[in-house]
Design a protein that fits this description.
With 425 residues, the protein is α/β, with parallel strands linked by helices. It has two domains: 164 residues, Aspartate Aminotransferase, domain 1 (Alpha-Beta Complex), CATH 3.90.1150.10; 248 residues, 3-Layer(aba) Sandwich (Aspartate Aminotransferase, domain 2), CATH 3.40.640.10. The chain has 14 helices and 13 strands. The strands form three sheets. It has a seven-stranded mixed sheet, with helices on both faces. α8 links the parallel β5 and β6. The longest helix is centred in the last third of the chain and has 26 residues. It starts with 15 loop residues before the first helix and ends with a helix. Bound molecules: pyridoxal-5'-phosphate. Pyridoxal-5'-phosphate (PLP) binds next to α4.
């Protein structure tokens, strides 16, 4: 018998990071000494005191049954206090947020995927950053949506304006606008004025904003903190924001975060999730509720930021010494680098196809585009170093590569030497 999978799966490409993992495994099998700065998965553990809170909650009787579909109210109360304290959202002067405006997610990847189910009809237009965290685009395509890309690129100052870049016909059809600041893969931040412009644009076009704040706690200059879209006037009419504990607390394996925003959007997410999953383990939710309110929480977040900042400074000075250009991130755990001048050029057929698909026709300096997949494959083949090829994150990622700072320090040292040798040719 032949196994027939749903036709919609043909629209779902293999996941980028699964391809990166497979390429690394193949290189290892060939005997190469591999090291990865490819994937954004913190190498350090969550702080011991949070793990101890989890142990206590795991040992507590009553925490082991099906959790509530919406999530634990104690986490929701703590999350509302946290967004007010950390992002100025809510409070007496802010939008009126209460328990109906928040629910637990099994990390933001799940939230993004289920919000596409909540919001998108086949043929709808979804507007999203390009380059981007691949899940926005692939989930949109799975549900038969059309995608319009907003280039988060040096040519748009990393803050593309939908009012300028979309035709009036596209703007009228836009159903959902995905935003992700701090932005993966570029690490760039948005200004509050820019976010306000997006909210005004979305409200004028009856478009929903889904804001992914997965990197909201990892920033490098306290004077330029990431800002929440929910702090903008009118945002609660049209927006939902996804917060994740994965990167901020080094707990990608715990699978916990929360969605906060417009009550009807939270209601839609609740409806879909209650039919799909059975929530996040209560012990994890209760440990995180206690962690957010704990006096050790903010000092830990400061320490974690300082740790990434030290790595960022080290890698940036190595890139400077190699002559590799990069766009210094304001936040996130990534550095967005330009391919070096000796990288292979994109062949003319691929370059024409990229431009025809609405991508760039030249690099950030107006010169012919270099081929990120070919260069990253060459880097892996000859040195064993894994980095993220820019084009894997979208059309506007061509010509770039991404370095992740979630790599142990000793591996970063080896990675830098491998990169230095390859760049020098
Ligand atoms: C922009 C962005 N959003 C969401 C996620 C997923 O995070 P979570 O672990 O909360 O599902 C990632 C993970 O890399 C990401 O880069």
């Amino acid at each position: 018998m032949s196994i027939k999978l749903a036709e919609r799966l043909e629209r779902l490409p293999p996941y980028l990071f699964a391809r990166i993992d497979a390429a690394r495994a193949a290189a290892q099998a060939r005997g190469l000494d591999t090291v990865s700065m490819g994937i954004g998965d913190p190498d350090r553990d969550p702080p011991q005191w949070i793990r101890e809170l989890l142990c206590e909650e795991v040992m507590r009787s009553g925490n082991h049954r099906y959790p509530s579909y919406k999530g634990h109210p104690r986490l929701h109360e703590a999350a509302l206090r946290y967004v007010e304290r950390s992002f100025g959202v809510g409070g007496p002067a802010g939008p009126a947020l209460g328990l109906p405006n928040v629910m637990t997610t099994i990390g933001s990847k799940e939230g993004i995927a289920n919000l596409v189910t909540v919001l998108v009809n086949p043929g709808d237009l979804i507007v999203m950053p390009d380059p981007m965290y691949p899940v926005f685009g692939t989930m949109g395509k799975l549900f038969g949506a059309e995608v319009a890309a907003l280039p988060v690129h040096p040519s748009t100052g990393f803050m593309p304006h939908p009012g300028e870049l979309l035709s009036s016909e596209q703007a009228a059809r836009a159903r959902v606008l995905f935003i992700n600041y701090p932005h993966n893969p570029t690490g760039q931040l948005a200004s509050q004025e820019y976010l306000q412009e997006l909210v005004d644009w979305a409200r004028a076009h009856d478009c929903i904003i889904v804001s992914d704040m997965a990197y909201g706690e990892i920033f490098f200059d306290p004077a330029r903190k990431p800002t929440s879209v929910l702090a903008c006037d009118g945002a609660l009419d049209c927006a939902i924001e996804l917060h994740s504990f994965s990167k901020s607390f080094n707990m990608t394996g715990w699978r916990v975060g929360f969605a906060v925003g417009n009550e009807a959007l939270i209601g839609g997410l609740h409806r879909v999730k209650s039919n799909i999953d059975s929530g996040c383990f209560d012990a994890i939710q209760l440990a995180m509720a206690r962690a957010l309110d704990d006096p050790r929480c903010d000092p830990f977040l400061d320490e974690n930021r300082a740790h990434y900042k030290a790595r960022l400074d080290k890698v940036c000075s190595a890139l400077d010494s190699m002559g590799v250009k990069y766009h210094r991130p304001g936040a996130s755990i990534f550095i967005w680098c330009e391919l070096p001048g000796n990288a292979p050029l994109l062949d003319s057929e691929a370059a024409a196809a990229l431009a025809a698909a609405g991508g760039p026709s030249a690099d950030a300096h107006g010169a012919p585009l270099h081929d990120s997949f070919a260069w990253c494959a060459g880097l892996l083949d000859s040195t064993g170093l894994v980095v993220g090829p820019g084009a894997g994150y979208g059309k506007w990622g061509e010509g770039f590569f991404r370095l992740s700072l979630s790599t142990p320090d000793e591996d970063i040292d080896r990675a830098i030497e491998k990169l230095r040798g390859f760049v020098a040719g």
